[in-house]
Amino acid sequence: MSLRKAYFLIFLVLIVDQLSKIYVKTNFVLGEEVVLFDWFRIHFIENEGMAWGTKIPGQYGKLILTVFRIFAVFGIGYWLADAVKKRHSTYLIVSIALIFAGAAGNIIDSVFYGVIFDGSEHNLATLFSPQPYGTWFHGLVVDMFYFPIWEGELPAWLPVFGGKHFAFFNAIFNVADMAISTGVGILLVFNKRAFPKHA
């Protein structure tokens, strides 16, 4: 796979990711939900840190996380260029490109959203607002896809979790997260094709 095709894939993921985030940010109030199907909803939340809302504590926690993500993307970009140069498997190149695009998509939120949007708590956010909600490198990542495929009470006989409320799948995520998960999934499922052993 050529570097040009990898760039096109990255560009496509970034465009879809950012358009979906900007649409939700400017058309939904924080916490608003639209039910498309029982198992698929658009639910607008903002993520301060990493997966499932975990974050690095302290005054500089968000800045440290954003800078770390930027360095990680540079590393992934180098890996991608090296894989293309050495003509590695298309499975590997597609995987790296998806992971790169997903990481870059969430970095865009973290770096820029705090200075181009106002808050979403009570009103629809304004793009390029004169009164932004944050500062550079302190933007919040926009998440919106929610798939509560099954929700209910677990049987009482189950150890530890018996009788408790449970939802599958209860994570809320975005296109960038899907790209990262797909890239990692390809590496895991097609590991032997992504990393063929040459005699």
From TrEMBL:
Alphabetical GO biological process terms: proteolysis
For this protein, the parts annotated as crossing the membrane are 60-80, 92-116, 167-190
A Pfam family recorded for this sequence = Peptidase_A8
MF term (GO), any: aspartic-type endopeptidase activity
What's the top EC group for this one? hydrolase
InterPro entries noted in UniProt: Peptidase_A8
Coiled-coil region list: none
Its UniProt entry gives the catalysed reaction(s) as: Release of signal peptides from bacterial membrane prolipoproteins. Hydrolyzes -Xaa-Yaa-Zaa-|-(S,diacylglyceryl)Cys-, in which Xaa is hydrophobic (preferably Leu), and Yaa (Ala or Ser) and Zaa (Gly or Ala) have small, neutral side chains
Q: State the UniProt keywords alphabetically.
A: Aspartyl protease, Cell membrane, Hydrolase, Membrane, Protease, Transmembrane, Transmembrane helix
Which pathway is this protein assigned to?
Protein modification; lipoprotein biosynthesis (signal peptide cleavage)
Q: Does the keyword Cell membrane apply?
A: yes
Q: Which family does it belong to?
A: Belongs to the peptidase A8 family.
The family database entries (PANTHER family) matched by this protein are listed as: LIPOPROTEIN SIGNAL PEPTIDASE
Q: What function does the entry list?
A: This protein specifically catalyzes the removal of signal peptides from prolipoproteins.
Q: Which NCBIfam families match?
A: PRK14788.1
Q: What is this protein called?
A: Lipoprotein signal peptidase
Lineage at the top is: Bacteria, Pseudomonadati, Bacteroidota, Flavobacteriia, Flavobacteriales
